[in-house]
Amino acid sequence: MCLIVFAWQVVPGAPLVACANRDEFYDRPARAAAPWPEHPAIYAGRDLQGGGSWMGITTQEAGGRFAALTNIRAPGERRPDAPSRGALVADFLAGGLSAPDYLASIAATAPGYNGFNLVLGDRHGLYWYSNRAQGDSRNGQPLAPGIYGISNGLLDAPWPKVVRTKAQFASLLCQGAPEAAYFEMLSDTTRAPDLRLPDTGIDIGLERTLSAVCIESPGYGTRTSTVVTLYADAPPRLHEKVLQ
């Protein structure tokens, strides 16, 4: 998952509304969101190379849990032998620990992963955790009500795609827009002007390509768009569109 915007305790009756795009190499094998045979309560996409997931939910009977992951873009720090970050999503969804207890359980091993953002919780509490956010008072703590955005930087880093999508997302929420409007928002292929691009240590041409909400390029791009809603008194819902 490389872009996620979410509203926490903003919409009456829906504690969490989240919209996300997963960007990945086209040849990395994956399975679309569906119940997992060995964990039928989990409804999530699956990375068939690493075995984990980038985003998913559990049934209401299993607590209506939610978890999503984005990578931190830091090519100079990347370790090819690091464990798969997708396991962080899968293990929370499959386990029984509360969000704060789960975050405490991974704290010792988190530095060994390549950089990540993890958003997880249920309709009662939502948390953001990153192994690259030392000193951020929000890291690992309950999030306050509000609208948030993450790409491949830290929470609410003002990357053009994050700023633009958060504003559009807030507008759609205020309008009570239909779900199709959120998927239209996620399909925006507009690239940011050079003066607004973040400097993440990659070539400027690639920085331009990756600045779009929906990425289109040979070999790599946005493969799925997803809308998730956790309701106060109804089963959670995950709707995914597979693009590549």
Can you describe this structure in just a few lines?
Helices cover 20% and strands 34% of the residues.
For this entry, give a set of tags.
244 residues, Penicillin V Acylase, Chain A, six-stranded antiparallel β-sheet, 12 strands, 20% helix
What can you see in these coordinates?
This protein is of the alpha+beta class. The protein has a single domain (3-242), classed as Penicillin V Acylase, Chain A (4-Layer Sandwich), CATH 3.60.60.10. Helix content is 20%, strand content 34%. It is built from 5 helices and 12 strands. The protein has helices at 86-94, 99-106, 160-175, 179-186, 204-210; strands at residues 3-11, 14-25, 30-36, 39-47, 55-58, 66-71, 116-122, 125-130, 146-150, 216-217, 220-230, 237-242. The strands form 2 sheets. Strands 1, 2, 9, 10, 11 and 12 form a 6-stranded antiparallel β-sheet that branches. Strands 3-4-5-6-7-8 form a 6-stranded antiparallel β-sheet, with helices on one face. A hairpin with a 2-residue loop joins strand 10 (216-217) and strand 11 (220-230). The longest helix is centred in the last third of the chain and has 16 residues, at 160-175. The chain is globular and about 45 Å long. The relative contact order is 0.21. The model has no long low-confidence stretch (mean pLDDT 97).
